[in-house]
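subagent[fold] <- orchestrator: predict structure for attached chain, return tokens only, no commentary.
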Amino acid sequence: MLTGIRHLSCALIALFIITGCTAKGAHYDIQPRQRSMSSVASANTTGAAARLSAEAELQDPAELEQTFKPQIIYNATLGLQVDRVSVVQQKAKAVVESHGGYIGDSSPGRMQARVPADRFEEALDALSALGNVSQRVITAEEASERVVDLESRLRSLHALRDRLIAMIDRAENIEHALKVQQELARVIDQIELINGRLRLTKQQIAYATIDLTISPTPAEQRLTPGIPVAWVRDLGDVFRQRGTIDVTTPRRLRDGVSIDLPDGFIKMSQENYVTRAIDANGVQIRVRRHKNFDGGSTRFWQQLITRSLDDNAGLTLNPSQPVAFERGGPGQMILGKKTMAGETVRYMIAVGVASDEDYVYTFEAWGIAEHFDVAQADLKRAIGSMRCY
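subagent[fold] -> orchestrator:
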């Protein structure tokens, strides 16, 4: 019996050993199949990548070029010589706006225009047609690499910012958290700086810049003559020079122009047929008598004065309108304005000829818009009171 149990035990042990070996053998037999499937998948991926690469190489270069749009910054410097600077400057502003652009910095005879890049050459040609071109320079700067570089740096900084924000939550102590916050603040400053540079670059790409200079045509080349009368050239001189108003004690008033001054004005001086007055808000009046020329009608003087105010004073003028004087022929009145030192200054001039046509009379008034507008009705009544002997 004992011998039979020993034989059964040995048989069972042998069976377990054989089963274990079989199982173990089956286990190791699986691995080669798994590796074989991975290898096949890898081979398939590599093959797909190779096919895509080959297809890219076979793609038409023209199609590839269409996927890349150059980033170019256009700038131009344009110089014009014209007979009437202020008139052409207004026309140039209208040209820029009609091409979808706008005016940046501007001063008499100079302006910086920004126009959409796709209409740059069209706008430049239209501006060139406004006068004789003395200078025309175009520059083009390739900015694609700059844009790619800034965008790449921005992505890296955004990733770093996100990692720093996550580190704050995992900070081991307050000191560690403060150091991370300091670094985070520095990274955010860098992001804002690069964002600003990127926005500026993209704006320069989207809108080309035209620096326009408008200067008077040299006298020997002008199609129309200059202003032939000295006192007409001097009209609006307040818009060309700065100085203090000298209100002195009135001397004996003589040789003035007969006019009823508006209420609230004091007469500063009156001699040599020039009368000057001012109110408490700085609105000024200057009334003068000038020797007339043969054929010097009101229409002639109105047209010559308009030209002078355009060319020499740079005023924006309204169409002239008729006025009546207490004595003398019918006159013409012109209203204008100009921005000086951030303030809008208004200007008024009336011109008329005496009944005998020997003399020309002018009434000028100017002042800051808010004060001038209050006095304007009284100024017009004063014009009506002029006696043009």
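orchestrator: received. Logging for downstream: The longest strand covers residues 72-82. The chain has two domains: 68-224, 227-384.
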